[in-house]
């Protein structure tokens, strides 16, 4: 993709969003005149899910016999199809750094400092890792054509300042994905995942990432999601991942109707923005690959960002589909032993992620850093509906404009307190 200006991206994205929103209003207006939001919240309720499923199947027993959407496969066969029980030893996905590689990272830190460049210029050419680099490149291939996840273990966090840990994280990760995605409209390409409920009022927090609450299964934005553990919690906070391709196979075997529901447009809450909502599917089939992209809170709201009034409600079928995605992901999940100094990489186009609730104490305050990465050489073809957002993420800021905050802050898309 060619580099474009921020203004071009903004104008193009806004135009497409306005068209999508208007089309969504036209399409949904009649269907939602007498429709109210189903009884569904951010935290999935297994009893409600089972009851809703039973009601819908009793009303129409033929639902599972619905035809698959045109072109969608009956079954996916790939290393990306796995279950948590398939993995017996974490050595299969954890790469433990060797002493020489840790020294190489330290030398790269010194090298970059000697260049006197802004952090946005971190790349393999400015952060040289002659021995570790090929290992990281193999991790990138594993994410795109293998199991879809890997963990790099052993960054000596306590040996470096916060600024240098960020430098190390960005430098090492540049070998996995050379493009860093925009996570905040102020140019932020790095995010902090940390409990801010003790320092910020509840109504200012609109996403569970800034609480000790559990996060349900979801995807972020971008190709590769990476998390770097600066510190772990005193208790809880288990990181969980699940193959969305395994979830798809379950649906393709048992509930064709839910695949059909997921592949049609849904109303994504803009939380008071302009437009107030947009529409797109959650599930796509592109270039022989299945892609599921969604976050549950965009249909249910969360804490300081309750679901907006006067936008289309989701349907009972969509409510069941949301819960089914979560509980199937939970069924097939792998629990990761996320340790201090670990960097986790997952293919966001084929893997859901979640975390358990947690408790901090004076000595252990869970604190993760997050990057949204893209490897242009290995990147998958994107569904057309996702392309505008990907262009904004990866091609709208220059290296000089990239921002790497040292402290945790709530990104603009997750700030609560919106007036309705």
TrEMBL record:
<dbReference type="InterPro" id="IPR003819">
    <property type="entry name" value="TauD/TfdA-like"/>
</dbReference>
<dbReference type="Pfam" id="PF02668">
    <property type="entry name" value="TauD"/>
</dbReference>
<feature type="domain" description="TauD/TfdA-like">
    <location>
        <begin position="117"/>
        <end position="372"/>
    </location>
</feature>
<keyword id="KW-0560">Oxidoreductase</keyword>
<feature type="region of interest" description="Disordered">
    <location>
        <begin position="21"/>
        <end position="41"/>
    </location>
</feature>
<dbReference type="InterPro" id="IPR042098">
    <property type="entry name" value="TauD-like_sf"/>
</dbReference>
<protein>
    <recommendedName>
        <fullName>TauD/TfdA-like domain-containing protein</fullName>
    </recommendedName>
</protein>
<dbReference type="GO" id="GO:0016491">
    <property type="term" value="F:oxidoreductase activity"/>
</dbReference>
<dbReference type="InterPro" id="IPR050411">
    <property type="entry name" value="AlphaKG_dependent_hydroxylases"/>
</dbReference>
């Amino acid at each position: 993709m060619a580099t474009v200006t921020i203004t071009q991206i903004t104008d193009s994205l806004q135009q497409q969003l306005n068209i999508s929103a208007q089309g969504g209003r036209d399409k949904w207006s009649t269907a939602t005149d007498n429709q109210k939001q189903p009884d569904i919240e951010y935290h999935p309720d297994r009893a409600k899910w089972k009851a809703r499923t039973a009601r819908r199947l009793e009303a129409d027993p033929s639902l599972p016999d619905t035809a698959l959407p045109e072109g969608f496969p009956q079954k996916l066969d790939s290393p990306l199809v796995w279950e948590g029980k398939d993995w017996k030893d974490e050595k299969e996905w954890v790469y433990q750094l060797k002493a020489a590689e840790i020294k190489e990272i330290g030398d790269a830190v010194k090298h970059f400092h000697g260049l006197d460049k802004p952090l946005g210029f971190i790349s393999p050419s400015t952060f040289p890792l002659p021995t570790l680099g090929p290992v990281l490149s193999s991790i990138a291939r594993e994410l795109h054509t293998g199991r879809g996840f890997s963990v790099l273990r052993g960054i000596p966090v306590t040996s470096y300042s916060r600024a240098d840990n960020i430098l190390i994280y960005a430098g090492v990760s540049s070998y996995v994905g050379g493009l860093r995605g925009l996570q905040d409209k102020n140019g932020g390409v790095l995010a902090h995942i940390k409990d801010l409920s003790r320092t910020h009022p509840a109504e200012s927090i609109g996403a569970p990432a800034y609480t000790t609450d559990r996060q349900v299964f979801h995807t972020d934005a971008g190709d590769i999601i990476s998390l770097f553990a600066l510190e772990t919690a005193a208790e809880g906070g288990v990181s969980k991942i699940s193959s969305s391709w395994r979830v798809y196979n379950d649906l393709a075997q048992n509930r064709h109707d839910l695949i059909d529901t997921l592949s049609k447009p849904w109303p994504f809450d803009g939380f008071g923005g302009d437009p107030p909502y947009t529409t797109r599917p959650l599930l796509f089939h592109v270039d022989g690959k299945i892609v599921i992209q969604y976050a549950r809170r965009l249909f249910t709201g969360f804490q300081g960002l309750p679901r907006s009034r006067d936008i289309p409600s989701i349907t009972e079928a969509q409510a069941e589909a949301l819960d089914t995605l979560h509980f199937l992901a939970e069924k097939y999940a792998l629990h990761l032993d996320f340790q201090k100094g670990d960097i986790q990489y997952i293919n966001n186009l084929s893997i859901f992620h979640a975390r358990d609730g947690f408790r901090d104490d004076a000595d252990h305050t869970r604190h993760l850093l997050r990057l949204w990465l893209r490897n242009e050489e290995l990147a998958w073809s994107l569904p057309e509906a996702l392309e505008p957002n990907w262009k904004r993420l990866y091609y709208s800021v220059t290296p000089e404009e990239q921002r790497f905050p040292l402290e945790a802050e709530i990104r603009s898309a997750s700030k609560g307190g919106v007036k309705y």
